[in-house]
Write a structure and sequence with these properties.
The structure is a homotrimer of 160-residue chains. Chain A is an alpha+beta fold and 160 residues long. The first copy, chain A, is built from 3 helices and 5 strands. Chain A has one domain: 2-Layer Sandwich (60s Ribosomal Protein L30, Chain: A). Helices cover 31% and strands 24% of the residues of chain A. The first copy, chain A, is globular, with a radius of gyration of 15 Å. Chains in contact: A-B, A-C, B-C.
């Protein structure tokens, strides 16, 4: 089976150098064989939030742009995981859970469709076995920087 | 002590065949001795969302209907756990955590009362020792299908 | 390195006797080497919610009061952890993750600044190594008792 790095390359994805949190927390923590990744925003490679990934789904942006934002959150989740694993993504045994928080305008219920942008990216990058995860998707009132989506993750990892 | 299956029977609960997610994720994942169950909606046995379990608490439905919806989410959580454990609920050591997301209308703060519908079901089904769990309850802006409640869970399980 | 108890003393913090949940759930559960603490509200030592820690950020209260509320949630998280560890905070190996739910008014996006009230408290109480955690911060529609903030936590603990 192709490695996660090979899959990412085939998908044309070059993981960014992820941003450092500007506060008393870290992007990821390993405990009990699990890697917990902090909630990631759809920040671009330059660390900024594109106007198209800002605001409320169903009001300021719509399904496809929301999926793109969710996909970008998932790319940043993988970038943080790689950093936490000293660059070695092959230590990922599987993705256990994604938590998806969608910045939802009134009566926007197509939350799972938006979240699929992240689930599809993880499934494609990790492959069918490692990539299938549990997930919870909810629509929230506000997100940091008025981002359209925020995604956190738990991975199971190989012991060092 | 009666088994979880016996308790469910005594409660008149026949766990449904749970729905398969129509996307790149799975209903539950086992990792590190923990079983993570994806967020479950209050879908009925036929897989549909009853009108009475739809909309915002304090606006479209009220405490008792909300508790019923939360209870139904918890039944679906158990159904997914059973499926993930190859039908053997006796492998559940305890319920570790429930996460409750309530579709809350303006100024609806009785979120814990709604969530009790789920906690009471889990406590009754698993018994006083295995059933007592940590939980987090929040009111969200929107939920998939405009469901009134969504509940995710973590269980500790016996090794195979 | 100073103990967590010493650090708390130096910070002038005397952990309260935490409130018992009035429902079928518990404040904290230990499983798989992890301690899961239920979502905590910014309740004071007397168990009541101060008017200044109630309502929506950006509408009823503002950044500094929000940070105070988040800090108080974190104090209550530690109080629950201490209770679950039979009074022995030295069993905490590290804080793994904080989940922050901010009661956010329209267009309030300074959620991370509010959440820093909790992250700073945990970092100061546990010290730089044990205190650095992953975190997820989102703005929710409503919280129990109309609290301004709710915070849940996962700690890694030493085996007994």
């Amino acid at each position: 089976m192709p490695s996660i790095e090979t899959r990412l390359k085939d998908m044309g994805i070059d993981l960014p150098a992820p941003p450092t949190p500007l506060a008393n927390y870290v992007p990821a923590v390993i405990a009990g064989g699990l890697l917990f990744v902090s909630g990631q925003l759809p920040l671009g490679r330059d660390g900024s939030l594109a106007p198209g990934h800002r605001g409320k789904l169903g009001q300021d942006l719509f399904n496809e742009a929301g999926q793109e934002a969710a996909r970008l959150c998932a790319v940043n989740v993988l970038a943080q995981a790689k950093l936490a694993l000293d660059g070695d993504l092959s230590r990922i045994r599987r993705c256990v859970r994604l938590g998806g928080f969608i910045n939802a305008g009134p009566k926007f219920h197509a939350l799972p469709a938006v979240m699929n942008g992240a689930s599809d990216l993880i499934a494609a990058a990790l492959g069918p076995q490692k990539g299938r995860h549990a997930r919870t998707t909810v629509g929230v009132a506000e997100l940091p920087l008025d981002a359209a989506v925020e995604i956190e993750a738990i991975f199971e990892i190989e012991p060092e």
